[in-house]
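Suppose a colleague, Dr. K., hands you the sequence of a protein chain of 64 amino acids and asks what its three-dimensional shape might be. Before reaching for any lab equipment, you can write down a predicted structure in token form. Begin with the sequence itself:
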Amino acid sequence: PKGGRAEWIFEHGTEVGIRTFQPLRCARSAYQPGDDRRGRWQRLAHAATGQCDRAFVPEVRPLE
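The predicted structure, expressed as tokens, is then:
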């Protein structure tokens, strides 16, 4: 997703109970080599876990 939409997905997905996020790259993705946001996404999921009092932090898998 473009812009801040990916961050929204990770925050709200964590809040509704998603256990694992698997980002993927498609033929028309706006992906740039060297643009690894996995760490940022994991931090967002961790912060959202604290906000909604979940017992575990969801896993953010590497980009496929």
